[in-house]
Design brief:
With 393 residues, the chain is an alpha/beta fold. The protein is built from 18 helices and ten strands. The chain folds into three domains: 60 residues, no CATH class; 198 residues, P-loop containing nucleotide triphosphate hydrolases (Rossmann fold, 3-Layer(aba) Sandwich), CATH 3.40.50.300; 38 residues, no CATH class. Bound molecules: guanosine-5'-diphosphate and magnesium ion. The site of guanosine-5'-diphosphate (GDP) has 16 residues, from helix 7.
Length: 393
């Protein structure tokens, strides 16, 4: 067992298992799973102990039987966050049998999914994403919504997880009975992490969460991945800093349905208003988005809870707008198709480059390219032909 980003993790037969998850990984008939709070599900964060005594005891005394698909499904459908956490661990597991079970479970949850409003939130580190999500999430649960917070952060292995690191700032939301917070899976390529997050989203929706917030750090490729899985994309900005300074690429601004300038409090209030009009003006110069919704620029202070209900009002307006013009449905369909094509491309790439003949041929062709003996197009064609020949033999 080791500690990762403040969370104690069990490393057993090649799979990472969150400490508290162990409790539910094995079915203990005499100890039926009880409802746990979100904080408990994420347990380990504040724990100084290196060993989860409870899990060890249960493992020693249990019949070591994995929950069945029906157990998971029942737990998820009833909104049991501990079981939901367990099921997500299966999705993240690298064990083949867990993967099979996870795929089964995702397929079973698919018909129950799709009913939430999916919100993507991005912005540079320090802009206040965690503070905002905490306050916004609490606002939503106070309005009888059920909120799930997920994160995409492919770099999280290095940075030890975006949300985990911010745990202290989500203390209130994580103990809210109507919230569920799950950090980014801590390993893998962006494609892999995105897929796991997408599947996690399906389980969360099946568990009855009607608002799913997906957080990403606004500096890399992950924005596009998040944009492709949400209905509304929200970009948090700092007052008084140009977008070059904030490291926000133009492409990310173009994806945004709303720009929210956070920290509009104290001395920064005036700067925030100035930035608001500047960004509003800049957005007018962008081509109109396919949703027909012109992105809105607003200010807020997550710290002082100012402008939070206004953000929700804006989201409601957006939902009405894209509901009326049918973009909501069309966009989701497009996203699903895009995911299929993305998965297909990824799989083709793996097959192609995983082929021994192809990987032996590529350096030879590269040499010929260097010597101007071959055109890149002919080389590509030769690779495909070599692959096809290898498949036939
Ligand atoms: N003044 C002010 N500070 C804020 C506000 N929101 C967040 N902060 C502070 O900004 C810092 C970074 O916030 P955090 O939520 O961790 O940002 P993240 O990296 O984007 O998740 C923290 O010290 C927060 O207390 C705000 O609305 N006003
Ligand atoms: Mg954060």
């Amino acid at each position: 067992m080791y500690r990762c980003g403040g969370v104690s993790v069990w490393r057993c037969t090649g799979v990472s298992v969150y400490q508290s998850d162990l409790f539910y990984l094995y079915r203990v008939k005499s100890h039926p799973p009880k409802q746990k709070s979100a904080l408990e599900v994420m347990k380990g964060i504040e724990q100084p102990s290196q060993v989860n005594e409870q899990a060890v005891n249960i493992l020693q005394n249990s019949s070591r039987k994995l929950l069945t698909k029906e157990d998971y499904l029942l737990g998820i459908r009833s909104g049991n966050r501990a079981i939901l956490g367990q099921a997500i661990t299966l999705i993240e597991s690298t064990l083949h049998k867990h993967q099979l079970m996870a795929q089964d479970l995702v397929a079973a949850c698919l018909p129950l999914s799709g009913k939430s409003l999916r919100i993507g939130i991005t912005g540079v580190p320090g802009v206040g994403k965690s503070t905002f999500i905490e306050v916004f999430g609490k606002y939503l649960t106070s309005k009888a919504h059920k909120v799930a917070v997920l994160a995409i952060d492919p770099s999280s292995q290095r940075s030890k997880g975006s949300i985990l690191g911010d745990k202290t700032r989500m203390e209130t939301l994580s103990v809210d009975a109507n919230a569920f917070i799950r950090p980014s899976p801590s390993a893998g390529s962006l494609g892999g992490v995105a897929r796991k997050t997408q599947e996690t989203l399906i389980l969360c929706e099946a568990a009855g969460f009607d608002i799913v917030i997906i957080e990403t750090v606004g500096v890399g490729q992950s924005e596009t991945a998040v944009h492709n899985m949400v209905d509304f994309f929200l970009l948090l900005m700092l007052p008084g800093a140009g977008d070059e300074l904030q490291g926000i690429k133009r492409g990310i601004m173009e994806m945004a349905d709303a720009l929210i300038i956070n920290k509009a409090d104290g001395d920064q209030k005036v700067l925030a208003s100035l930035a608001q009009s500047q960004y509003q003006h800049a957005l007018h110069l962008f081509p109109p988005p396919p949703s027909g919704w012109l992105p809105v620029v607003m200010t807020c202070s997550a710290q002082y809870g100012i402008g939070i209900s206004e953000v929700w009002d804006l989201l409601s307006q957006y939902r009405d707008h894209v509901g009326q013009n049918d973009f909501f449905k069309k966009n989701r369909l497009e996203q699903t198709k895009e995911r299929m094509h993305g998965a297909l491309e990824e799989s083709l790439r793996q097959h192609l480059f995983g082929n021994e003949l192809v990987s032996a041929l590529i350096p030879l062709l590269e040499k010929q390219l260097e010597e101007n003996k071959l055109s890149p197009y002919v080389a590509a064609q030769q690779i495909i032909e070599a692959y096809q020949a290898a498949k036939k033999s």
